[in-house]
Amino acid sequence: MTCAACSNSVESALKSVNGVLRASVALLQNKADVVFNPTLVKDDDIKKAIEDAGFEAEILAEPITFKTKPNGTLLGQFTIGGMTCAACVNSVEGILRDLPGVKRAVVALATSLGEVEYDPTVISKDDIVNAIEDAGFEAALVQSNQQDKIILGVDGIFSEMDVQLLEGVLSTLKGVRQFRYNRMSNELEVHFDPEVVGSRSLVDGIEGGSGLKFKLHVMNPYARMTSKDVEETSTMFRLFISSLFLSWALVSVVQFVIGKRFYVAAGRALRNGSTNMDVLVALGTSASYFYSVCALLYGAASGFWSPTYFETSSMLITFVLLGKYLECLAKGKTSDAIKKWKVHWGKGNRCLTNSAWDTLKVLPGAKVPADGVVVWGSSYVNESMATKVGSDAVLNQIISLVETAQMSKAPIQKFADFVASIFVPTVVAMSLLTFLGWYVGGTIGAYPDDWLPENGNYFVFALMFSISVVVIACPCALGLATPTAVMVATGVGANNGVLIKGGDALERAQKIKYVIFDKTGTLTQGKATVTTAKVFTGMDRGEFLKWVASAEATYGRLCLEQVGNRKLMNENGITIPTHVENFVVELEESAKTGILVAFDDNLIGVLGVADPLKREAAIVIEGLQKMGVKPVMVTGDNWRTARAVAQEKDGSVVAMVGDGINDSPALAAADVGMAIGAGTDIAIEAADYVLMRNNLEDVITAIDLSRKTLSRIRWNYILQWHIT
């Protein structure tokens, strides 16, 4: 409630409740006295009516009346400490109402009081106190309508003899059942029989028995509560001060011991005339730390306490170190591939001699040392990874390629480097401008004084904003966004057989729209086989094949293929009959190459040679198309063969990727060159990507890896600027 209109609204809401006889609302006390018929309306109904009117309500305990309840119950009022919310109130009320002998229990959060109506023949005051304390709260009896206890303040006690005199007087008084004197508070608690002695007679008896040495007065229970609150407030204040100084000590360890590396790095950068993220971290945390120290010492000296920001500096250092840890973790993981390759050779061998020249037993499946010499024995060796020896070996070239790629910078990082170079001076300048703006604005009255924190001033208020600009603007992710992503991408690619030459190639690959494939040996298996043999003369088929095999053995496959094309036949004046031409066309349209065979200037037959597609070729082409990449095929065969291979999968146009040998010029000229198979130096030199496993699916892996990496870099930048 904030005005008379509010109190009138509450009164109207209460009086409209059926069963309410009278309602009076006090605005200043924030209280309402309601007289109602309990048979028609309950406490909760009245509370709900107030809340429905748009106000908050809480049921307070009724004023204590020292009248004996008609049913023999007693009414006790207890202080309850430790309650902080409505849930605590409900918890205490529930515990009290569940106690045997308790008829009614009401707890008020605002006054920390609880009123309990109970049957003294079933439960005692101490039982109620114990039940509250067992629930995790503090409790003490304030007063009760049972006239058998009185708390008195005693003046005139100065020594132990005075205490003994008081105890002696109490021991001689009739009707006194029990007493306890508190030397700290000078309070005397007396339990007595009200049928034998009254409270007035008890006071007179103690004063008279001491020869008027002691003066007694009845203690007001609410005054005792106030004294207890003051004592509790003082205790909390001492704990608060202790907590601040302890925070100072602990944060100092974080600031200057754990955070020492930032000061060292910042000092080195400033001596070199440059600024980096370490300068920003050191500046921001130092500003927060030293301001908090000044605020703490000023508060201890003057009693005016300003907010401190010790946790800001310590948490900032903690989070930056977490980022450094993640960076090191990423570096370690991306170098795993290189470590694995460096131990690639010689693994699994047994040393038979121990001399200047060790003799190794190479077990089946083990790796052969590239600089070794076979002493005895024979076997089969996979030479795909060792075309040379020593530092020129393909394995060493691959390792060098990956290491170079991880050190390279993608073009997108140039933007980050530029921003980082001007970021720190910009942040410092903005921090100073922020301080001046808020400080000058306050002195000229640009904003109301209500905005100032308690016990604050314009200088402190402006300094808070200035520090905030510095401490939230530590974009360590700005410097890590690109290199970490590139390192992870090259490491992941290497582990999956995709070697990337650098960040430049990685960034270009994510923009690929067309992929051009070489056919033979890439999309196809590179293992041509004779599938058809047709003789057009009277020559026996076996003799025909014998002549062809003899020519192939003598002149080689290349010569045989050259002899068998139309151009060479025409150049030698050999006529190709129509039925032979039609047969060759049928072969070509079925994805086979027709080889014409002539003997003594006469065409005697045709061979059909097929180079079947790799099993994954169709899947890769379909996958590229789903990625929005258009595949294109180039081939040295005639156009009918190329078209037949391209249309083998639902009429889709198939493209080929080079094997890095005869396609080196194309690989070098392309925006992104991908060589399938890493058995040659030409592949490593000419291509941007080397697909080690000779698997077409790695083309999709390479493009997808590039796209995901660049997407992650962009997200790193976006999240960095949003967080900052």
UniProtKB/TrEMBL annotation:
**What's a GO biological-process term for it?**
monoatomic ion transport
Which GO-annotated molecular functions does the record name?
ATP binding; ATP hydrolysis activity; copper ion binding
List each copy of the HMA domain by range. 1-58, 74-140
What's a GO cellular component annotated to this UniProt protein?
membrane
Q: Which SUPFAM superfamilies is this protein grouped with?
A: Calcium ATPase, transduction domain A, Calcium ATPase, transmembrane domain M, HAD-like, HMA, heavy metal-associated domain
Location within or outside the cell: Membrane
Q: Which InterPro entries match?
A: ATPase_P-typ_cyto_dom_N, ATPase_P-typ_P_site, ATPase_P-typ_TM_dom_sf, ATPase_P-typ_transduc_dom_A_sf, HAD-like_sf, HAD_sf, Heavy-metal-associated_CS, HMA_Cu_ion-bd
Protein name, UniProt field: HMA domain-containing protein
* Origin species: Hevea brasiliensis
